[in-house]
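Quick one, probably user error.
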């Protein structure tokens, strides 16, 4: 069964949007198989966003993602990677379609409420970065 990694970023947690994000995905029929709240370390942030190292927004992104608690989750279901990407909308809230999380709730390209895996390889890598196998329910 396909799985993906989803995170409510510090802006979403601070603004009380955890329930709204979860609710949209539950309503779509997907199943949550793991969840935890944590404050991301500099080291974990660097690993998670390794592909963006060297980009102009990298330092700001790291300081933002480590600035407060996040909620990390694993979701499961057929086509869940692409479906959650559609529910989130485009990275930049200004370009995201109406009805998506980022358009409805995001305030800027960095404060865009959620992060979700963009491919099966990314999903596997990100799930393993944040969760042990024993933390994922069957
Ligand atoms: P995310 O899906 O978490 O993956 C990388 C993040 O970089 C992205 O969401 C944005 O929040 C953040 N970011 C900040 N500035 C930019 C930018 N100029 N272009 C793309 N991503 C950016």
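Nope, works fine. Designed sequence:
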């Amino acid at each position: 069964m396909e799985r993906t990694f989803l995170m409510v970023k510090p802006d979403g947690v601070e603004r009380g949007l955890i329930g709204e994000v979860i609710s949209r995905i539950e309503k779509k029929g997907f199943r949550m198989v793991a969840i935890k709240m944590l404050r991301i370390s500099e080291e974990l942030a660097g690993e998670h966003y390794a592909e963006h190292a060297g980009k102009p927004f990298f330092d700001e992104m790291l300081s933002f993602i480590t600035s407060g608690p996040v909620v990390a989750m694993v979701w499961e279901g057929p086509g869940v990677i692409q479906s959650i990407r559609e529910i989130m909308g485009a990275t930049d809230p200004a370009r995201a379609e109406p009805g998506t999380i980022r358009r409805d709730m995001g305030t800027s390209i960095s404060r865009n409420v959620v992060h979700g895996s963009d491919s099966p390889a990314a999903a596997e890598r990100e799930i393993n970065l944040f969760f042990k196998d024993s933390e994922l329910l069957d």
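DSSP finds seven helices and four strands in the chain.
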